[in-house]
Specification:
mainly alpha; 69% helix
Length: 144
């Protein structure tokens, strides 16, 4: 497949990950997404703002196989983020999406202590932004 066709294929994959009634279809779509990440990394990285929200939901699926495949896809997709300032925090950001109650406050503290020198692109923001609403809702719990 031509890498530039990624933008045409991705909406159908993401739709299946979000709405498919059968877990096999969801995991199949996640496998194809992993193949896109490997075969068209530049094009897939540009589409991270569309990918991360869907994977963030899929990691909470009731079927264990879907959860596992979604976490694998999330890890592989996040490897496409090229911002050197948050590169070392990517595992913490992924863990924050998986375990928000335990991880988000610590991850926010790590990020707030970071001086951003590199350009913050849409792929980088797509991983950081999902933490903000959660932290805003829960921040009152941590106030003295």
């Amino acid at each position: 497949m031509n890498p530039w066709a990624t933008a045409l294929l991705l909406p159908a994959l993401l739709h299946q990950i979000k709405t498919a009634g059968k877990w096999q279809i969801k995991t199949g779509a996640l496998v194809v997404l992993n193949q896109l990440v490997a075969s068209a990394p530049l094009q897939t990285a540009r589409l991270m703002p569309d990918i991360i929200p869907v994977l963030s939901e899929a990691i909470w699926d009731t079927k264990a196989d879907v959860k596992k495949a979604a976490r694998d896809s999330l890890t592989k997709a996040c490897a496409l983020i090229s911002n050197k300032d948050i590169e070392r925090f990517i595992p913490a950001l992924i863990n924050s999406l998986i375990n928000p109650v335990e991880e988000v406050p610590n991850t926010i503290q790590l990020l707030s202590a970071t001086t951003f020198v590199s350009e913050v692109d849409s792929a980088t923001l797509s991983l950081m932004v999902p933490l903000c609403p959660w932290y805003q809702r829960e921040a009152h719990c941590y106030e003295a």
